[in-house]
Q: What sequence folds into this?
């Protein structure tokens, strides 16, 4: 049953990816602007313009260009970028994707590590000054534009205090602590929104959970207060939490664009920004396909995780 | 044509650096390169130390000198490669000096002889000899794919390899522009690449450059960094001083500045004008920057729309308050321009231009007189196409619009995205736009291709065959004074018929932290790190 479901989901995924790829390709081609003009800078001749257009295959009909790209793409040949002449698979998949994944994971970890305890405390201390304070914090966090926060963090912690590096990426796989050190400011910047969201969600669901009979039962058994909340309570908010995180992944990936630009991280966000501005059609395609795949993949994982999080969903045959 | 004393011409070009007497003495044997000690390999090799990190905030397309269209790329390319000639600056005058060549001589006014330095090797170990020079020049002139800079060597008829260290270039006409064609702007037509590497990598040479320069290319990670390391076999004595150089590729200049202030990087290859005040206030960095060879202007469409009327164009040209523009749009950092020829064009720029009566400047009365002569006396509505591009983005358009209201032209500002802006400009789909031609060192490249009738870069669509003739005549005259006269006449036509309203010459800034020593500033947007060291 699970297998059939998974296969069905995969089929849907492919259809969605196809639609996404046609739409991106079409939109980019419709947008005014010409990669050859951008490539050649200001000083060029008509002759070199035409020879370059032909060399890059941009003089061919739209459908032929798309079909070419799609056929090569599914075979693992993602093409070569126009300007830098770099292999797009290496650039997008091996270089940019790990950066964005690292940034996204750090933000998620920050969001959970800060958001859940804050939410739990707010729920437990409902209607106290602490609760009100955390509500204000959450509201500000959701409303604050991440790029502005990033710049403020850079100036305060990076330039004023000199505690953290203000830019650059070091892979945590190569040098764990340096990598973490470089991720703290961008990770915090990107996660503010999610910290706030998780705090509110945790508070709301936990308040509901704490009203449930099994909590009353646990208390009646004389279990200590911390155990009632952190074991019986928090375990039961895992499911809504995971669902929301999966759904919000799109927002997270969207946020990486600005965060990566502000902190100069060579991830998918920066790649997509410069590719769109430079009309690097194939790089944009690669970026969008990876993002779409990631989004669909994570939501698939969220679906699959339900039986693990909630034993009641297991083995219903 | 009168007989030109080409020895004298060449001597003039080199005199700033060598001093007149030395030049006259050197004439018998051609001009000796200023740094001739390099011909004894193994002597005075530098001890390299230090890892310099500088931010590069603009797009870098390729590290192939024969294909790039961007100065940000040239800044790096020049540290990896050498040319036949190089640009030098003594604080007052820009000159062209032999680089890979030991001597540069004129046999007659159409034949240039370059004697190369002995024992220079590319980073891949192959020798840099006359054949390599021929290979590079041919690669620009007629290579496949076609180099966008091929036009610079159009007059080159024959490349004669006299012996392994001597190359003779035969031109079909005297070619006054040659030194700039070989070194200047984004062209670098005279930059010498390793033939072995160019053949091996083909179109991928731009990702794997191999030159003779003070630094070797190591790696290029997209959107991240370009790494160079010292070439310990470099031919100039005591260079380079650094062991490693990283160009950190950044999109956000304000982040680069923050990184500089927190000590994470040591400099910026380009400091946007809006950040210069902040840098000035920061005690631990030094700002380099002077007015460079450039000019900015508001372009008017001479092919369609209201600005086909010459009197309306003249009205605009005289209605712009340049002082206000410099203050409001250029943060008070630029210099008012009267004509395109700019300060670093030694011998051509007139230091007294402001009082010479030539060119365009702000005179509202005169503007109103021209406006009164215009065909359409009603209020005219025009579209000004602007984008977040160039050194100051949309600030110019916003400052200009109210000035034109004074003469009954209502400006509709239209903000579009840079790629769309480029396309519309190239197709001539606008009434007004503003732009800047940058990093020019010769009057020819600063006006002729830009305003040649039906030329590819003449986006305003201005046509004037008299202008074309004057520029063409000037191209084959080698003597500066005589050439300058022709360019002045050409400029006067351009300024009078006003396809553009000229605005300013801009300074281009670079910043280095105080730890960086020995940077040699050249007003051609270069970041040559040959002599730079870290303390």
A:
């Amino acid at each position: 049953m699970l297998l059939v479901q998974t296969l069905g989901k995969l089929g849907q995924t492919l259809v969605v990816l196809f639609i996404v790829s046609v739409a991106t390709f079409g939109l980019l081609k419709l947008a005014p602007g010409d990669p050859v003009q951008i490539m050649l800078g200001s000083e060029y001749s008509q002759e070199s313009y035409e020879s370059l257009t032909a060399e890059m295959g941009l003089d061919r009909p739209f459908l032929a260009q798309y079909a070419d790209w799609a056929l090569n793409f599914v075979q693992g040949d993602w093409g070569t970028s126009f300007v830098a002449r770099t292999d797009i698979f290496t650039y997008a998949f091996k270089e940019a994707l790990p950066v964005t994944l690292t940034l996204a994971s750090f933000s998620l970890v920050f969001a959970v590590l800060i958001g859940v305890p804050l939410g739990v405390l707010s729920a437990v201390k409902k209607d106290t000054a602490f609760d009100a304070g955390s509500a204000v914090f959450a509201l500000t966090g959701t409303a604050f534009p991440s790029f502005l926060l990033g710049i403020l963090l850079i100036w305060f912690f990076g330039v004023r205090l000199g505690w953290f590096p203000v830019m650059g990426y070091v892979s945590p796989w190569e040098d764990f602590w340096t990598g973490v050190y470089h991720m703290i400011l961008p990770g915090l910047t990107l996660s503010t929104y999610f910290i706030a969201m998780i705090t509110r969600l945790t508070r709301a669901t936990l308040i509901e959970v704490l009203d449930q009979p099994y909590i009353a039962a646990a208390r009646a058994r004389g279990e200590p207060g911390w155990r009632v909340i952190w074991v019986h309570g928090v375990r039961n908010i895992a499911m809504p939490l995971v669902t929301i995180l999966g759904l919000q992944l799109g927002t997270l990936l969207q946020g990486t664009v600005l965060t990566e630009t502000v902190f100069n991280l060579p991830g998918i966000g920066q790649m997509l920004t410069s590719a769109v501005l430079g009309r690097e059609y194939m790089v944009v395609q690669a970026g969008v396909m990876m993002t779409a795949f990631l989004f669909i993949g994570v939501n698939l994982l969220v679906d699959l995780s339900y039986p693990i999080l909630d034993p009641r969903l297991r083995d219903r045959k | 044509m009168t007989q030109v004393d080409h020895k004298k011409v060449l001597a003039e070009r080199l005199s700033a650096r060598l001093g007149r007497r030395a030049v006259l003495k050197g004439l018998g044997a051609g001009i000796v390169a200023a740094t001739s000690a390099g011909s004894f390999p193994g002597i005075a090799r530098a001890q390299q130390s230090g890892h310099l990190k500088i931010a590069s905030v603009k797009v870098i397309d390729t590290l192939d000198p024969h294909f790039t269209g961007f100065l940000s790329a040239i800044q790096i390319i020049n540290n990896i490669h050498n040319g036949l000639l190089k640009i030098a600056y003594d604080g007052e005058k820009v000159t062209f000096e032999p680089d890979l060549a030991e001597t540069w001589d004129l046999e007659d006014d159409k034949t240039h002889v370059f004697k190369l330095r002995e024992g220079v090797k590319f980073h891949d170990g192959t020798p840099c000899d006359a054949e390599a020079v021929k290979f590079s020049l041919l690669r620009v002139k007629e290579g496949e794919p076609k180099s966008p800079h091929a036009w610079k060597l159009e007059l080159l008829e024959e490349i004669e390899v006299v012996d392994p260290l001597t190359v003779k270039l035969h031109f079909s006409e005297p070619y006054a522009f040659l030194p700039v064609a070989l070194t200047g702007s984004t062209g670098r037509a005279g930059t010498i690449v390793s033939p072995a590497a160019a053949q091996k990598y083909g179109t991928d040479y731009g990702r794997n450059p191999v030159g003779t320069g003070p630094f070797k290319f190591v790696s290029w990670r997209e959107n991240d960094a370009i790494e160079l390391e010292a070439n310990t076999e470099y031919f100039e004595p005591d260079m380079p001083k650094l062991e490693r150089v990283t160009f950190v590729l950044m999109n956000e200049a304000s982040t680069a500045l923050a990184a500089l202030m927190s000590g994470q990087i040591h400099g910026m290859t380009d400091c946007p004008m809006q950040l210069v005040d902040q840098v000035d206030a920061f005690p631990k960095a030094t700002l380099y920057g002077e007015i460079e060879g450039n000019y900015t202007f508001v372009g008017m469409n001479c092919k369609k729309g209201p600005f086909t009327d010459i009197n309306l164009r003249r009205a605009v040209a005289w209605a712009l308050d340049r002082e206000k523009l410099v203050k409001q749009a250029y943060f008070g950092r630029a210099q008012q321009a009267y004509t395109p020829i700019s300060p670093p064009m030694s011998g051509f720029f007139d230091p007294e231009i402001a009082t010479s009566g030539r060119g365009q400047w702000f005179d509202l009365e005169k503007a109103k007189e021209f406006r009164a002569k215009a065909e359409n006396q009603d209020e005219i509505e025009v579209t000004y196409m602007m984008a977040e591009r160039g050194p100051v983005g949309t600030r110019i358009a916003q400052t200009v619009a109210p000035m034109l209201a004074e003469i009954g032209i209502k400006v509709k500002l239209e903000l579009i995205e840079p790629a769309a802006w480029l396309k519309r400009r190239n197709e001539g789909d606008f009434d007004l736009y503003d732009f800047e031609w940058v990093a020019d060192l010769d009057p020819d490249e600063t006006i002729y291709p830009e305003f040649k009738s039906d030329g590819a870069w003449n986006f305003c669509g201005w046509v004037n065959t008299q202008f074309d003739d004057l520029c063409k005549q000037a191209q084959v005259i080698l003597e500066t004074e005589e050439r300058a006269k022709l360019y002045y006449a050409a400029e006067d036509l351009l300024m009078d018929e006003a396809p553009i309203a000229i605005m300013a010459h801009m300074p281009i800034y670079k910043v280095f932290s105080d730890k960086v020593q020995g940077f040699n500033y050249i007003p051609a947007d270069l970041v040559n790190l040959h002599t730079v060291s870290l303390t």
